[in-house]
């Protein structure tokens, strides 16, 4: 009993209380499992719930977690200590509320903001977790929520939300799935049903058999799986091995039809969740820099207090005086800094979301808008981010003649003629070799493209047809509108769709035959004798078919130009044309054929079968037999297919490059495809060389390749995930150092974990700010690891956009997001932060002067409400209105992205600019205090009145001096603040002598002091603008 209770409590704790980012608490050990079909209650182990959880906190960890995140900053911790010290009577200076009110306000704002962010995450998770799925039970189908799916349930699937073993397909024994959310690859993967269950006559029989699946423990690798299926209730028991091709991972989509599977892994144990990292709390670089400056201010504060006590001569209880001085000067470090910056961040977020030029943009993390202005590395996904992932057939080249998008109708005419003649004349003897007409060559080329592929046409059952028993061939709708094509590669589909558009249509296909329909409606049937699938080593695929009407045997082949150029007969145009098409960003395939006699084919088949049965070196022997056919093939044509780029990708990438941002493309796709897109999107400019990093497997090879790469200058690097892994193992520092010098880097065949690893490496070695942008579930790790993550809401779902800090609807919006909003957010926050510090420094200087004049007494200059009013009501609005300031118009910032480059050096906020503000504060504080002391007559009250009024006016004038472009709200804030101060003088009679304030003497004395404190700065600013103007002012003039 007690053991069960402990188990239940630990389960509940792991599920609910374990905060993200603290995974070391109570981690469950992952084990292999036995799952009974349709009986989740038979599972001995407790498995995690099938729910997604992106929240950082829960009910119990929220307040402690938020407070920890706040007091982790030196600034806030310092204020907590100062405020607590006011409870000690000997140290009490003024009223408690002067310390606790600002601190309470800061914490309230922060907690509110975090609560809203957290609530939004909770709502998004809830939406995903309550998606409905059909579950098969003994009583038939029932609807269950995604979060209620358990290990052992039988689920009827269209989109997968848990990990399944695939038991039967309703209409066929195999299906295609799309895995773009998981690995970023858009080609469809073929999955096969467990043959034992596929043979069952009806769905209900899945419950009448006694069967279980034994599966390996959950792991990260998305490309492998080991398990066994056992059926116990027959004699002898049936055992089947299960591999990756019997599985459907979570976050994948069944491309067509309906599938029934048993749930093996759920929730945290699915591959997609195991491949995502825990979201970290991101802190902007600006916040870290301001944290450094507050530490410097603290050192100054301590030094000043020690100097005061030393000048006092350490009399009496000096340590108590030291602490009182520390409290008196505590305004050197302004608490309002965090409030102003946090409110500023909220304002920037609001401006981004309201910008009509980038509609649909959402700010999901409101703490880091300034990061957008400091980026040096942009890591982007390829599929769906740079490209639309839609293949379009663009060009057919026959050597002497080339057809483009506008001349496709000529091909249709060429095709109509031979097929109308074929139907009239009887099959004749093969004609002697004469130079073929263009028409017959077009006809041959199109036929080859229509036959040489692994595409299957699929017809969905008619609407209203459900259940399996009633479903028959006759109910299928064979109309053109109902046909969709399924294939492992979108290129293949594009080619077959193109042959359909010119009149030669693939209408059906199974393992042994395929049928084409000609423009005249005649059906041509071909038997498939052999298939040689595409592999990344051979880079080509082939098919041997027999035409049923003429009994001709043809061997068709298509592949990459590097693989095909040595196979086809000599020609003088292939290499040149491939180069031309590649420069246009087209993906090229070379198509060739060879006619075989019956004897040649029989000879080949016997050798091929023999090779397939051999025990040793089977793959090599099979390849050798196939290669014996691949000789002197007749070159038919060269095809060019374009993966269409997203709107305005080229100008956007160019703009980012001019802004000094280095762009890396990380993709799960093939090397050739990635290189092709890098060229067509102008990620790599036309004049640049590309260094393709050869595959390496050990330390020696990696060393040689790195040396070869080191000798290249100014060339883009293309490297595959496997080679990258090897190099990082042995030569991490060298590789990153070399790659950082490249103008562009392309990493292909990257797993989601690798993408995140590359981001972390750049952060460690380059020490610069990184931004990751992607649109699929496979990009989530990278987006969360980067300093700033941007998600695109694309065809691949919303997973990336939900996990990102900023979500956009199109890639081109990133230009404005960085150049305009990122730049202005950083510049505004830098100005705001320094101004707030100046506001604290100036009053501390006045306090220091006051104390030193009055025999180093630790007495406050301004009491109670004056201090609170100074930091809030009297100066808050004008100072905060700096968030509306802009140095150049948005159009200018977009037109001259070079302006962005300046920001990466961080010159808007540095120790140099900070020092300038410190000197200004000391000068103004000194003038204000000495001026008031010189001009006060009989009573101390007058000093307070004159100096405080002059201080408020100085602050308002300084805001006006700092502003670069006036906004009407800034003027309103200035007037409003001055009005508030003048109005409040009537109520502040405990601090001011109202009779004295209304005299002319008071007015002229205040005016004189204010002019002396501000005029020199205005003169200096004017001279600086004349003698060394900043870069942006040259554009505005």
UniProtKB/TrEMBL annotation:
It is an enzyme of class 7 (translocase). CDD domains: P-type_ATPase_APLT_Neo1-like (cd07541). Pfam families: Hydrolase, PhoLip_ATPase_C, PhoLip_ATPase_N. Mg(2+) binds at residues 381, 383, 775, 779. It is found in: Golgi apparatus, trans-Golgi network membrane; Membrane. It comes from the Eukaryota. Keywords: ATP-binding, Golgi apparatus, Lipid transport, Magnesium, Membrane, Metal-binding, Nucleotide-binding, Translocase, Transmembrane, Transmembrane helix, Transport. Residues 802-1029 form the P-type ATPase C-terminal domain. Its EC number is 7.6.2.1. GO terms for molecular function: ATP binding; ATP hydrolysis activity; ATPase-coupled intramembrane lipid transporter activity; magnesium ion binding. Residues 417-438 are annotated as: Disordered. Belongs to the cation transport ATPase (P-type) (TC 3.A.3) family. Type IV subfamily. PANTHER family: PHOSPHOLIPID-TRANSPORTING ATPASE IIB-RELATED, PROBABLE PHOSPHOLIPID-TRANSPORTING ATPASE. This is Phospholipid-transporting ATPase. It comes from Canis lupus dingo (dingo). The gene is ATP9B.
């Amino acid at each position: 009993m007690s053991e069960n209770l402990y188990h239940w409590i630990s389960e509940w704790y792991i599920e609910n209380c374990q905060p993200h980012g603290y995974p070391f608490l109570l981690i469950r050990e992952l084990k292999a499992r036995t799952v009974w079909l349709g009986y989740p209650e038979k599972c001995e182990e407790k498995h995690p719930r099938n729910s997604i959880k992106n929240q950082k906190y829960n009910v119990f960890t929220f307040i402690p977690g938020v407070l920890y995140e706040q007091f982790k900053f030196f600034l806030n911790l310092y204020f907590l200590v100062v405020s607590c010290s006011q409870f000690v009577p000997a140290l009490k200076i003024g009223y408690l509320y002067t310390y606790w009110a600002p601190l309470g306000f800061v914490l309230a704002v922060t907690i509110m903001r975090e609560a809203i962010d957290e609530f939004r995450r909770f709502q998004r998770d809830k939406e995903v977790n309550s998606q409905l799925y059909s579950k098969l039970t003994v009583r038939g189908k029932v609807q269950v929520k995604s979060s209620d799916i358990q290990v052992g349930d039988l689920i009827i699937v269209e989109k997968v939300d848990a990990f399944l073993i695939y038991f039967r397909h309703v209409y066929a024994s195999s299906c295609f799935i799309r895995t773009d959310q998981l690995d970023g690859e858009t080609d469809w993967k073929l999955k096969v049903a467990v043959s034992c269950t596929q043979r069952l006559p009806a769905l209900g029989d899945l419950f009448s058999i006694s069967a279980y699946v034994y599966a390996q423990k959950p792991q990260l690798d998305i490309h492998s799986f080991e398990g066994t299926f056992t059926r116990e209730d027959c004699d002898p028991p049936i055992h089947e091995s299960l591999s990756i091709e019997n599985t459907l991972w979570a976050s994948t989509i069944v491309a067509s039809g309906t599938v029934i599977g048993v749930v093996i892994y759920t929730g945290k144990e699915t591959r997609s969740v195991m491949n995502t990292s825990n979201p970290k709390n991101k802190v902007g670089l600006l916040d870290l820099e301001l944290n450094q400056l507050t530490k410097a201010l603290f050192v100054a504060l301590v030094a000043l207090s020690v100097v005061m006590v030393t000048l006092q001569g350490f009399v009496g209880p000096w340590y108590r005086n030291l602490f009182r001085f520390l409290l008196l000067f505590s305004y050197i470090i302004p608490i309002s800094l965090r409030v102003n910056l946090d409110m500023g961040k909220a304002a920037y977020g609001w401006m981004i979301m309201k910008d009509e030029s980038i509609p649909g943009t959402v700010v999901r993390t409101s703490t880091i808008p300034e990061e957008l202005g400091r980026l040096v590395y942009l890591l982007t996904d390829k599929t769906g981010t740079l490209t639309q992932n839609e293949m379009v057939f663009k060009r057919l080249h026959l050597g002497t003649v080339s057809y483009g998008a506008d001349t496709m109708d000529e091909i249709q005419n060429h095709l109509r003629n031979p097929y109308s003649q074929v139907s009239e004349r009887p099959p004749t003897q093969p004609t002697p070799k004469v130079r073929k007409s263009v028409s017959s060559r077009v006809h041959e080329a199109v036929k080859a493209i229509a036959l040489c592929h692994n595409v299957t046409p699929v017809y969905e059952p008619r609407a209203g047809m459900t259940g399996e028993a009633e479903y028959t061939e006759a109910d299928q709708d064979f109309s053109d509108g109902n046909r969709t094509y399924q294939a492992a590669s979108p290129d293949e589909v594009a080619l077959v769709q193109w042959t359909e558009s010119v009149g030669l249509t693939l209408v059906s296909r199974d393992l042994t035959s395929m049928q084409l329909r000609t423009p005249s409606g005649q059906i041509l049937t071909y038997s498939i004798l052999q298939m040689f699938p595409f592999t990344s080593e051979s880079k080509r695929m082939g098919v041997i078919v027999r035409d049923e009407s003429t009994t001709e045997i043809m061997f068709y082949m298509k592949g990459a130009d590097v693989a095909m150029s040595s196979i086809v007969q000599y020609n003088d145009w292939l290499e040149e044309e491939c180069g031309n098409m590649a420069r246009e960003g087209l993906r090229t395939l070379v198509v060739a054929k060879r006619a075989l006699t019956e004897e040649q084919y029989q000879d080949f088949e016997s050798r091929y079968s023999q090779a397939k049965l051999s025990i040793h070196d089977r793959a090599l022997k099979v390849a050798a037999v196939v290669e014996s056919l691949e000789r002197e093939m007749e070159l038919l044509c060269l095809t060019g297919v374009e993966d269409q780029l997203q709107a305005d990708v080229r100008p956007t990438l160019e703009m980012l490059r001019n802004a000094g941002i280095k762009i890396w493309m990380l993709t799960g796709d093939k090397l050739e495809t990635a290189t092709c897109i890098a060229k067509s999107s102008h990620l790599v400019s036309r004049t640049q060389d590309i260094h393709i990093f050869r595959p390496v497997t050990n330390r020696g090879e990696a060393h040689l390749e790195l040396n070869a790469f080191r000798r290249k200058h100014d060339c883009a690097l293309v490297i595959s995930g496997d080679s990258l892994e090897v190099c990082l193992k042995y030569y991490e520092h060298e590789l990153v150092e070399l790659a950082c010098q490249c103008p562009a880097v392309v990493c292909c065949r990257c797993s989601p974990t690798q993408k995140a690893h590359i981001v972390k490496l750049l952060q460690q070695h380059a020490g610069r700010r990184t931004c990751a942008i992607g649109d699929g579930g496979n990009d989530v790790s990278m987006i969360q690891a980067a300093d700033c993550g941007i998600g695109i809401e694309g065809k691949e779902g919303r997973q990336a956009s939900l996990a990102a800090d900023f979500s956009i609807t199109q890639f081109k919006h990133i230009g404005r997001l960085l150049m305009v909003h990122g730049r202005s957010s950083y510049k505004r926050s830098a100005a705001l932060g320094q101004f707030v510090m100046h506001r604290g420094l100036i009053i501390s200087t006045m306090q220091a002067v006051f104390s030193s004049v009055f025999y180093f007494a630790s007495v406050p200059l301004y009491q109670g409400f004056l201090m609170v009013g100074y930091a809030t009501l009297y100066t808050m609005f004008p100072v905060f209105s700096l968030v509306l300031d802009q140095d150049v118009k948005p159009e200018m910032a977009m037109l001259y992205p070079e302006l962005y480059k300046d920001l990466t050096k961080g010159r808007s906020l540095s120790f140099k600019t900070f020092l300038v503000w410190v000197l200004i504060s000391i000068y103004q504080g000194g003038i204000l205090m000495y001026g008031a002391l010189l001009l006060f007559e009989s009573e101390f009250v007058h000093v307070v009145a004159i100096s405080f009024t002059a201080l408020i006016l100085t602050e308002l004038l300084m805001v006006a001096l700092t502003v670069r472009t006036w906004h009407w709200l800034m003027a309103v804030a200035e007037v409003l603040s001055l009005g508030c101060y003048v109005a409040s003088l009537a109520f502040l009679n405990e601090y001011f002598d109202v009779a004295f304030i209304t005299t002319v003497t008071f007015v002229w004395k205040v005016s004189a002091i204010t002019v002396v404190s501000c005029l020199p700065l205005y003169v200096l600013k004017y001279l600086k603008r004349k003698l060394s103007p900043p870069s942006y002012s040259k554009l505005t003039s």
